[in-house]
Design brief:
67 residues; mainly alpha; elongated; transmembrane; receptor; cell membrane; Neurokn_rcpt; GPCR_Rhodpsn_7TM
């Protein structure tokens, strides 16, 4: 972790893990049963966790290409 590139790669790994943890399983459940059973609060969080990590990955790759 002594270089800037390693921090960027760690950021990419964390953002990808965030999508896997907070979004994939719950979205799969909704697509399988066609009913959202996790409450309205987690519905908003799940939608945010589907978009924010992707934006973080894109911005990280932009910064890596500039660096």
């Amino acid at each position: 972790m002594r270089t800037v590139t390693n921090y960027y790669l760690l950021n990419l790994a964390i953002s990808d893990a965030t999508i896997s943890i907070f979004n994939t399983g719950f979205s799969w459940s909704y697509n399988f049963f066609y009913v959202w059973i996790f409450g309205s609060t987690y519905c908003a969080i799940s939608n945010l966790m589907g978009i924010a990590p992707i934006c973080a990955s894109v911005f990280t790759m932009i910064v890596m290409s500039i660096d």
